[in-house]
Amino acid sequence: LLRSTMGIIVAKAEEKHILVEVVCPDEISADINLPLLEQAFVNLLDNAVKYSNPDSRVRIRTVCSDTVISISFQDTGIGIAKEHLPRLFERFYRVDKSRSRKQGGTGLGLAIVKHIAAAHNGYITVSSEIGKGSVFTIHLPIA
Ligand code: ATP
Ligand code: MG
């Protein structure tokens, strides 16, 4: 799933000389909706690349416990100010309207991620610091 996600975003990442690093155990099994989860991963990786500086690194890390799989997408990009975090997952919400218009997109990506996580009985979290970067993590319970 992560490989196919990377395949979709790789051209965009290479264009900005962004290296996508993946840390993931070899075998994880979980009952998931593959195309939906791929869409969620693509949206998060797309953001990580889009809102990062050229010549940087994006890291995808998967961590498993007995009850939860957590997949995090970490960038060292522009970051997000605290006051925006509570509204980030609303439809059409964008932090910087003029920049967003230039970069394209609709402001739906994260709203879709939130719904896909919920469809798996999971949820999404974010931590971010302006100028330092962001980490978005999808938490999926293992049935
Ligand atoms: P779309 O995903 O529909 O193409 P979008 O990327 O603007 O458009 P979302 O993915 O929903 O929309 O993200 C909402 C807003 O959150 C973005 O416009 C951007 O301001 C901010 N954002 C999202 N991810 C990041 C990130 N990794 N770093 C910095 N800002 C981010
Ligand atoms: Mg997006």
3D structure, described in words:
The protein has 143 residues and is an alpha+beta fold. Helix content is 34%, strand content 26%. The chain is built from four helices and five strands, in the order H-E-H-E-E-H-H-E-E. It has helices at 2-15, 34-50, 97-103, 109-119, and strands at residues 19-23, 57-64, 68-75, 123-129, 133-141. The protein has a five-stranded mixed β-sheet with strand order 1-2-3-5-4. Strand 1 (19-23), helix 2 (34-50) and strand 2 form a beta-alpha-beta unit. Helix 1 (2-15) runs parallel beside helix 2. The protein is globular, with a radius of gyration of 14 Å. The two termini are 19 Å apart. The mean pLDDT is 94. Bound molecules: adenosine-5'-triphosphate (ATP) and magnesium ion (MG). Residues 43, 47-48, 51, 75, 77-78, 80, 88, 93-96, 100, 105-111, 134 line the site of adenosine-5'-triphosphate. Magnesium ion is lined by residues 43, 46-47, 105, 109.
Gist of the model:
The chain is of the alpha+beta class.
Helix and strand arrangement:
Blueprint: H1 2-15, E1 19-23, H2 34-50, E2 57-64, E3 68-75, H3 97-103, H4 109-119, E4 123-129, E5 133-141
Parallel strand pairs: 1-2
Antiparallel strand pairs: 2-3, 3-5, 4-5
The chain binds adenosine-5'-triphosphate (ATP) and magnesium ion.
